[in-house]
Amino acid sequence: MKNLKKNNKASFSKFSLKKELLKSIKEIGFDQPTPIQDKVIPHLKSSMQDLIASAQTGTGKTAAFGLPLLDLVDISNSDVQSLILCPTRELCIQISNDLMNYSKYIDGMKILPVYGGSRIDKQIKSLKKGTQIVVGTPGRVKDLIKRKKLVVKDIERFILDEADEMLSMGFKDDLESIFQSTPSKKQVLLFSATMTPKVVKVTKKYMQEPKKIAVAKENLGAENIEHYFYMVSEKNRYEAIKRVADLNPDIYGIVFCRTRKETKEVASKLMNDQYNADTIHGDLSQSERDDVMQRFRNRHLQILVATDVAARGLDVDDLTHVINYNLPDDEEIYVHRSGRTGRAGNNGISIAIINGREMYRIKKIERSSSIKFTKKKTPTGLDVCRKRLYALIDQIENVRVDEKQIEQFLPYIYEKLNWLDRDELIKHFVSIEFNRYLSYYRNSVDLDDKEFHGGNRKRKKNRNKKSRRKYRFGKKNKRKN
């Protein structure tokens, strides 16, 4: 987790955190607290009141609850004092790593991640040795409690991170079971990007007069993110993604799909079409997921196809694009997705691929945030060919020539290409890379959904109205007869 850009507030020293924590976060590069850190840290340091925080990924919430938790830990006590629940293995690992980095100068601090897909016997062995903070996914935590290996009857603080995602993934029963194993007197901290009805129900059932903090709106519509939408017919969604990728040879982004099945289909098509892409989904083993994530973080993959849940825990600062293959059901989730680009002072582009019937959803996102969408014409085959050709020319112009290494091969090259004049030589070199784009896009069609543009849509509505009226009157007259 990277701290956000500087503001005019005082440094972390104002929170009276342990010197070991201040030393580590200074090394990490944290300078001044983000808005959520500025509100949550002093609350946890001074009060046992429950807390509800509306906060998205990228706001600095891990440090917001993590730093005061670490500061309040009793090192002399090896029992579990705080339990943190999160929806995915990746997020579990990320939070644990962040807490370990913050507390690396505190002797005796033990933090344990527990999640499915990893050997439970190793996690049980670590629990027996003692740990003050456990970070886990609901299924594995419930299992360990049931086996009586994870004892949470004396915890002081219970943190639910990404509560909306946990509930949308069907962890309601697991959460109920875990809550029942915890003491009635404890502090409950709930962090959620969206306050869905399911989340609200949990807050009413398990929290006592919680304090509410909302900072998500302060992070909406970042000025360095451009928001576009392409309007295409349903059958052309995938083709639109291909054209975006072809138009941006240096793309480094995430394609968000709604379902696991959809991510598999889109990623499979991209890979079959020779794009540098892959996907993460629940059917992968942990080692397979880790491999994909690592390759993406190292930029060995250009495009990652994922659902919102699967992408949790993937913290990358230099994404160029976020592409919405489908818009999410909740407007705030779109903001959450788009906020993954345009980080650390970089510019970013967020693209929504919609059909004409979804235009109202674009308007809803605009009304609920400071985002303003720009309608873009879907790239044509000519657009792609032009962009790729010019990119190739730039590449040839700027390539580094190693005179010593190439010198021994030049006589053969000159002899082989001697029959070509300057113009023909240029055409041959350019065509090596360019021919495949020309061939693919030679008969390409315009993807824009003309059915929902201007007069065409209006005329179609009128035609539908007339046909319905005709049918209705005809039916009525028939009844009279």
Verbal overview:
α2 packs parallel to α3 (61-72). The model is unreliable at 1-9, 454-460 and 470-481 (pLDDT under 50). By secondary structure, the protein is α/β, with parallel strands linked by helices. The protein is built from 20 helices and 14 strands.
Indicate the mean pLDDT: 85
- Main CATH class of the largest domain: Alpha Beta
Oligomer: single chain
Amino- and carboxy-terminal Cα gap: 75 Å
Strand content: 5-15%
Give the CATH H-level superfamily of the largest domain.
P-loop containing nucleotide triphosphate hydrolases
Low-confidence stretches: 1-9, 454-460, 470-481
Which class best fits the helix and strand makeup? alpha/beta
What's the CATH architecture name of the largest domain?
Answer: 3-Layer(aba) Sandwich
Mind telling me the C-alpha Rg? 27 Å
- The name of the CATH topology of the largest domain is Rossmann fold
Number of strands: 14
Largest sheet: 7 strands, parallel
In short, what is this structure?
The chain has 481 residues and is of the alpha/beta class. Helix content is 48%, strand content 13%. The strands form two sheets. Strands 3-4-2-5-6-1-7 form a seven-stranded parallel β-sheet, with helices on both faces.
For the structure shown, list the relevant keywords.
disordered C terminus; 481 residues; disordered N terminus; Rossmann fold; single chain; seven-stranded parallel sheet
Draw up the topology in text.
Blueprint: H1 19-28, H2 35-46, E1 51-54, H3 61-72, E2 82-85, H4 89-102, E3 111-114, H5 120-129, E4 133-136, H6 138-146, E5 157-161, H7 163-168, H8 172-181, E6 187-192, H9 197-206, E7 211-214, E8 225-231, H10 237-247, E9 253-256, H11 260-272, E10 277-279, H12 286-297, E11 303-306, H13 308-311, E12 321-324, H14 331-338, E13 348-354, H15 359-368, E14 373-375, H16 381-398, H17 403-407, H18 410-417, H19 422-441, H20 454-480
Parallel strand pairs: 1-6, 1-7, 2-4, 2-5, 3-4, 5-6, 8-13, 8-14, 9-11, 9-12, 10-11, 12-13
Helix pairs in contact: 2-3, 3-4, 6-8, 14-15, 16-19
